[in-house]
């Protein structure tokens, strides 16, 4: 038989269980937020140290000291320095890459897209030296400008070759020329004062080295670049797939895409 006191006791017990569940969920959320803040502190410290001229020699101990965390805490978030550097490269380049791609997907595939991206990277370096030094220093131990940008670089090479605008001896040569020369240009901009159109001069040399026609080279360097973040806010992100994604199937038969992708990730 149910009594009034029994019903009240059952209800109270039920409320207690719900309260404990909410409390556990709240504690778990607080824990996740704390972990996220600590991870962000480590990444911010790494960026601060790597965003300097001599940042390439940054050690774990320096990062831990700057972030005010113990070395053991560092390894709770990153299994190695390499994992941290990879995460940092993505952290400081991903949003910028999205904005740049929102712009370049509005122009024809091939030389124009590639030249826009290279110009954006060099101009960003001039405007934000800390970002530029971090990208330069992070490139020393892995793919130039990181794995995500390397994938976009592969796509750019494929587009240039499939559209027959690039006439390099191989995809690897084209990739190395574009990324290597851009990296060298960024270092020059960080170390010395250069003319306002230095990025355009460098891109013109790269495009000519790839065999791009002179008329197209002029379009590559004379077209005004919109501010990428503002452009993306106004028009949205680029489509998930482009000419390069589809054109890759053509090159796959020759083994270019698979071999080149493996090389760039090493």
Task: Write structural notes for this entry.
This protein is 74% helix and 0% strand. The protein has 266 residues and is mainly alpha-helical. Helix 5 packs parallel to helix 10 (214-222). The relative contact order is 0.11. Mean pLDDT is 84; it is low at 240-266. It comes from Aurantiacibacter flavus. This is TetR/AcrR family transcriptional regulator.
How is the CATH topology of the largest domain named?
A: Tetracycline Repressor, domain 2
* Oligomerization state: single chain
Distance between the termini: 73 Å
H and E string = HHHHHHHHHHHHH
Structural class of the secondary elements? mainly alpha
What is the share of helical residues? Answer: over 70%
Top keywords for this entry?
266 residues; Arc Repressor Mutant, subunit A; Tetracycline Repressor, domain 2; 2 domains
Task: Summarize the helices and strands and which ones pair or pack.
Layout lengths: L3 H47 L9 H8 L3 H7 L3 H24 L6 H17 L1 H10 L8 H16 L8 H21 L6 H12 L4 H9 L5 H8 L7 H10 L3 H9 L2
Brief summary:
The protein has 266 residues and is mainly alpha-helical. It has 13 helices and no strands. α6 crosses α8 and α8 packs antiparallel against α9 (198-209).
